[in-house]
TrEMBL record:
PROSITE patterns: 2FE2S_FER_1, 2FE2S_FER_2, FAD_PCMH. This is xanthine dehydrogenase. It comes from Caenorhabditis brenneri (Nematode worm). Residues 258-444 form the FAD-binding PCMH-type domain. Its EC number is 1.17.1.4. Residues 13-98 form the 2Fe-2S ferredoxin-type domain. It catalyses: hypoxanthine + NAD(+) + H2O = xanthine + NADH + H(+); xanthine + NAD(+) + H2O = urate + NADH + H(+). GO terms for molecular function: 2 iron, 2 sulfur cluster binding; FAD binding; iron ion binding; xanthine dehydrogenase activity. Keywords: 2Fe-2S, FAD, Flavoprotein, Iron, Iron-sulfur, Metal-binding, Molybdenum, NAD, Oxidoreductase, Peroxisome. SMART domains: Ald_Xan_dh_C, CO_deh_flav_C. The lineage of its organism: Eukaryota, Metazoa, Ecdysozoa, Nematoda, Chromadorea. Its main location: other. Its cofactor is Mo-molybdopterin; FAD; [2Fe-2S] cluster. It is found in: Peroxisome. GO terms for cellular component: peroxisome.
Length: 779
């Protein structure tokens, strides 16, 4: 038997996959490269966009097809996270592969989205198209809920989503399986379409029933802007077939290894070989969804000598019921895990599925569907993020992980206060793998719940996550067992041990709540300036989560003496079942000439090209012999720059040179008021301020070299508020604000006002956080 680290011992050593039906064979590609970069830079398929570059916006969505248990499966994925070697033996479909304006052939998804005015800047559009396309390939007759879930990982900053949903809801079926949009009714509202309603005495479709608030005039509420009844029906039999070669030659069961420069990729199919690899390469990174590792590679430029992808190992896909828990292999994607959880919730008694119910609910808020389609629960556990969505659930429910190594064999370990050793550290040994997680089933008289609060409702990391389990004596209401766990309240997922110890044996009552909140306030207290900030807000969230849990349990037990027991505690918790929205459209006067376009809903001139990926943006233009530049940015917010060492950066192959303050015309400034130097010469005034720039033959080479530049600086106290700026002799710029059209001044400077007109007051505005996606201009 050859060594498992010997590349030549694997079934395949060349990277083979298909893109839009065309075979691709690679022998010289960096395994660290993402699929998005490969598609854009190597294959010139620029319809796949790179927006956030970390799996959050969905602009890079593609569809991956593969063989699993003899069946062809399709799933959507973020190509900006997908490592290029991760598509070995698979078929990739991009937006260019399903339709084209140049070929006068639009896919029904593309046609309807363009006709429904579903794009404005168009940067996110191809991602939405591929998300919907992947959904239809798996389910040609989706419901509205299916469509909402399928688009969960896609963001749009232009349209407000209404026209996108209107276009895609046209593919939905009603509860009886009937299409909501037909030739007789081109509206995504189905039977509620205003065309199907009788006109009232004013000649308005549906009357006041469907146009609430209409009082006459040129503007009124309408349900429908676009008529999709003449669009082509979706025919799943006309889709691109799965490449016969991949199925015929059994690529899904082939082991694969790949060697390129400083990185080796191992993809075993044997469980024994996987354990052997971890013995031989204990510090090799295991990769599944790549959501964590990809970020480290892109922004920290970590060294990655060896990678192991275990997804082809069948033993890691095992799932079954045990005596008091559910065994789920870590080869399952989070989507597979969720589907199995839902299946068990239907099969098992309700009182046994308390933990499973909240695992299912939490998974809905866990990243987006495109991430969950490839990510594994093992990565979430092993990376030990203190703001993990799932780890508090495992800790509160006393779940177990099955660890295995070739040297010591298999062992089960509880995810408790001893599991997480410190920030991003666990008890898992370097030569061990996480084989499975065992999720407990709730017992009689046990109550379980978990909650999460993030900056936005979906597709976002948590600020605080809380999970709670309590077992009560049904007659005396004495607490027999209680477990309280939080994410976001410590450097690790935290079990509130002191609070739990003092609550056992207490009676579940109003006094119990008061005592618990007091104990948690002490145990979870965060110091000012804690990493992540918002110390008081996070503590308030932690306390409110337990308060919510207390009310839910009390209501279930019908404890009417508890204060606020009848309050609605479901706000922001349940997955919304439908969309509630209203939009106003300008009504075109019936006497307006047909040739007059003013106010008419005319399709975007580039709408079709947005949906096919053929619209060209600046990032899509490949200029011959073009050099690339990456900035060296300040890692501090305030200080003095002493020196810059370019030695390591200049030794990187492909680097041409560098630019800094010495290369800029003396006195040149930029900014709204020309008050910021192009490059820092001495004084650093904000975090991320450009200090220099590296010029190279390739953008990634430039970025990597920029990360190697060594800066020597003296750190000073950062100025992060207006008050600090004023205290540091900062000054306000006196702007002459004027009212529109009239020219009348809105604000008068104090010296021009009489004392009677001046009222001393203070106002404080908080910061705003934005998601920047469309930073690429169109051609």
């Amino acid at each position: 038997m050859k060594e498992v680290t010997d590349i030549s011992s694997y079934d395949a050593t060349k990277l083979v996959f298909y893109v839009n039906g065309k075979r691709v064979e690679e022998t010289d590609v960096d395994p660290k490269m993402t699929l998005a970069t490969y598609l854009r830079d190597k294959l010139k398929l620029t319809g796949t966009k790179i927006g956030c570059n970390e799996g959050g916006c969905g602009a890079c969505t593609i569809m991956v097809s593969h063989v699993e248990d003899g069946e062809i499966k399709h799933f959507s994925a973020n190509s900006c996270l997908m490592p290029i070697c991760g598509v070995f033996g698979k078929a990739v479909t991009t937006v260019e592969g399903i339709g084209s304006v140049a070929k006068n052939r639009l896919h029904p998804v593309q046609e309807r989205l363009a006709k429904a005015h579903g794009s404005q800047c168009g940067f996110c559009t191809s991602g939405f198209v591929m998300a919907m396309y992947a959904l239809l390939r798996n389910n040609p007759n989706p419901t509205v809920s299916d469509i909402n879930l399928g688009l969960q990982g896609n963001l749009c900053r232009c349209t407000g989503y209404r026209p996108i949903l209107e276009a895609f809801y046209s593919f939905a079926v009603n509860e009886n399986g009937t299409l909501k949009v037909s030739e007789d009714n081109g509206c995504g509202m189905g039977e509620n379409c205003c065309k199907l309603k009788k006109k009232d005495e004013n000649g308005i479709c549906g009357g006041e029933e469907t146009t609430p608030g209409y009082t006459g005039g040129d503007r009124k509420r309408k349900i429908q802007l676009s008529d999709l009844s003449d669009c082509k029906p979706y025919d799943p039999t006309q889709e691109l077939i799965f490449p016969p070669e991949l199925k015929l030659h059994g690529y899904e069961s082939k082991s694969f290894a790949y060697d390129h420069d400083h990185t080796k990729w191992y993809q075993p199919v044997s469980y024994e070989n996987l354990l052997c690899l971890k013995r031989e390469l204990p510090h090799a990174r295991l990769i599944s969804g790549n959501s964590e590792l990809a970020i480290e590679l892109k922004f920290r430029f970590i060294d990655l000598p060896a990678v192991i992808n275990p997804r082809q190992v069948k033993e890691l896909h095992a799932r079954h019921l045990e005596d008091d828990g559910v065994y789920m292999g870590t080869g399952m994607s989070l989507t597979d895990m969720d589907n199995y959880t839902v299946q068990l919730m239907k099969e098992l008694p309700k009182e046994r599925t308390g933990v499973l119910k909240h695992v299912h609910e939490m998974l809905h808020w866990f990243a987006g569907i495109h991430v969950r389609n490839v990510a594994s629960v093992a990565g979430n556990i092993a990376t030990a993020s203190p703001i993990s969505d799932l780890n508090p659930i495992w800790m509160a429910s006393n779940a177990q992980v099955v660890l295995d190594s070739e040297a010591r064999g298999e062992t089960k370990v509880h995810i408790d206060e001893k599991f997480f050793l410190g920030y991003r550290k666990t008890v898992i040994q370097p030569d061990e793998i996480i084989k499975a997680v065992i999720v407990p089933l709730t017992q009689e008289n046990e109550h379980f719940a978990a909650y999460k609060q993030a900056q936005r409702r979906e597709d976002d990391i948590a600020i605080v996550t809380g999970a709670f389990l309590v077992k009560l004596d049904p007659k005396t209401l004495i607490v027999e067992n209680i477990r309280i766990s939080y994410g976001g309240m410590a450097p690790t997922t935290k079990l509130a041990l002191n609070t739990m110890k003092k609550l056992k044996g207490e009676k579940w009552s109003q006094e119990f709540l008061d005592k618990t909140l007091g104990l948690l306030s002490e145990e979870l207290k965060l110091p000012a300036g804690v990493p992540g900030g918002m110390s008081q807000y996070r503590l308030s969230l932690a306390l409110s989560f337990f308060f919510k849990f207390f009310l839910e349990v009390s209501k279930k037990l019908n404890l009417t003496e508890i204060k606020f027991v009848d309050c609605d505690v479901k706000i922001g918790q349940d997955v919304p079942q439908t969309l509630y929205a209203t939009q106003l459209y300008q009504e075109v006067n019936a006497n307006q000439p047909v040739h007059d376009p003013l106010g008419r809903p005319i399709k975007h001139v580039s709408g079709d090209k947005h949906t096919t990926g053929e619209a060209v943006y600046c990032d899509d233009i490949n200029v011959a012999d073009c050099l690339h530049m990456a900035f060296v940015l300040s890692p501090i917010a305030h200080g003095t720059l002493n020196s810059i060492d370019y030695t390591a950066a200049m030794n990187v192959d492909g680097v041409i040179g560098y630019l800094d303050a010495e290369d800029v015309t003396t006195g040149a400034q930029m900014g709204h008021h020309s008050d910021t130097p192009v490059f820092v010469k001495e004084k650093i005034t904000f975090h991320g301020q450009p200090i220099a720039a590296i010029v190279a033959t390739d953008h990634e080479i430039a970025r990597r070299a920029a990360s190697l530049v060594k800066l020597d600086y003296a750190v000073e106290k950062p100025i992060v508020t207006i008050k600090l700026a004023v205290d540091e002799n900062g000054k306000f710029i006196d702007l002459d604000f004027t009212a529109h059209k009239t020219g009348q001044r809105i604000f008068q400077t104090p010296e021009k006002l009489s004392p009677a007109e001046i009222r001393p007051a203070k106002i404080k505005a908080g910061r705003r956080e934005k998601t920047f996606i469309t930073g690429r201009d169109r051609k």
